[in-house]
Amino acid sequence: MVAYIFCLTTSGGVPVFARSKNGLKQLPFPVIGSLNGVHMFARSHDVELLSTVTDDSKILWKSFHDSLTLIVVSEDDNADDCHLGNVLSHVFDSMVMLLGFDDVTNIKNVERFKKDVRVCFPLIDKFVEDQSLLTFGDLVNAVDVIAAAENAVLQNFLDAFAECADSPYGCLLIHGKIAVATRKWWNLTSRELVLISLLVSSLTSCSSRDIPVFLPDGSPSVPHRLMTFQLTKFIDVCVLCGPKPSLNELEEEVGRFWRTSYESLRAALQNHPCNIPSSFNLDSNILGFIVVNIETNRCLCSVYSSSTTNGDESLDCHERRHILRSYYKHVVGNYFASKVEGSEKIPSSFTHSAMDTYMTTDTYKCYAMLSPPHQIYILYSTDIPTFAMRSITEKTLMILTKDKSTQL
Predict the structure, then answer these.
(1) Beta strand 51-53 with 57-64: parallel, antiparallel or unpaired?
(2) Which domains are seen in the chain, by residue range?
């Protein structure tokens, strides 16, 4: 769990910002200066300082384009360093998305940049504060999706609206997760998909907005216009546009295109918070799951499985989410490679490539399986026999990926 993130200029070590988890005291500047000084001292002697651990914490440094150095302080959960490195990459990409690559990598006036970067804080804080119980995209580098039987109908509404906006890029978000998107939207890179969804959810709720955004991979120096429109509470439609149309022009079209979709939207919203239709018959021992398609950059997850309604409250949903995230970080980088940069460096001492792994404790069991292009991580209750976890995991993966509504 991230406690602090610090940003300083790489050349001079000038502090740019510091973000911390709510409830934690700000670290004094001499401590921050010392953390950066150790890194700068190492660089001056041609040594790259990557990370270190204390009795209960881990510190990781990462420099970007000889412009900014980011430092993260976290509890030491014995996970591979790639996960904290992933957090810092998200933070840097957040600045690129809202300020542009040129302004972030070529800082001419530090004091002005310190003021400009404040616009990024709501998005950056998404990687510091506890995320919603319902999303894992920031962790797995794949955008969260929500499965609904109405998705096929909603796809037609979205395609028509995107065509009206003269844009091939459009998506429909339900509680910050993609229900449907245009083909071009799915062609965005994994970090662009994740960041845009998190950006929308980080902003104050409003009926419509028009925000200039840079795509870290596709267009880091030339901004697009991200326009969002709230169709109902918790449901937004988003399009990426050029100079035209204006926000006012498109606002007038929202009602015409989406009015008749209200019943479908309301029905799709009912799949929250499970993220899957009630018709999916999953094993009652499943307490939560993460399914990732590493080719399409999509993630389907839930900690509100069917067993929640069957009276099994041995682990509440906060605990389930924490266990699943911890298990993912334990597996990826140590046994599995995934979308997380650096996770492909599996320890060379292994004589084979693992395809399955599991863990049992007194209060829960976990199972992970590779079935390219999918990866699945499941949290089970202790009632499930250990020998049965593999077959049930296979069956669950088939249920979740074969249905068209999951888009996996």
Answers:
(1) antiparallel
(2) 2-130 (3.30.450.70), 148-269 (3.30.450.30), 286-406 (3.30.450)
